[in-house]
Amino acid sequence: MAVRTAHKLAIENEHIKADMVEMVEFPHLAQKYMAMSVPKIVINEIVDFVGAQPPEYFVEEIMRALRAGDNPMYS
Q1: CA distances from 48 to 22, 23, 61, 65 (A)
Q2: Which residues are within 8 A (CB) of 60 and not within 5 positions of it... i.e. 6 or more apart?
């Protein structure tokens, strides 16, 4: 569900890019993002969350990452 939601948002908005990574095949990425369970969602290296969430939650987290990215306090 999480991968489908992320890709659907990417299809609907050209400013969103979605990638799915199999953490068993790419352990260095699992370690980098501290992925202990799936799905692990990382947005702009700023916001992350675990678990399948409804699309509205994804959008809220995308907006939070955008706000944080514009704010030097979060850099």
Answers
A1: 17, 15, 8, 9
A2: none
Residue 75 predicted with pLDDT over 50: no
What would the two tokens of residue 38 be?
Answer: 């799936």
Whether the predicted model's global pTM rises above the 0.70 cut: yes
Q: What is the chain's length?
A: 75
Number of independent structural domains in the chain: 1
- What CATH number is given to the structural domain containing 57? 3.40.30.10
Which pairing describes strands 40-43 and 47-50: parallel, antiparallel, or unpaired?
Answer: antiparallel
In this predicted model, what pLDDT tens digit does every residue of 12-35 receive, in sequence order?
999 999 999 999 999 999 999 999
Write out the H or E segment, with its range, that includes residue 43: strand 40-43
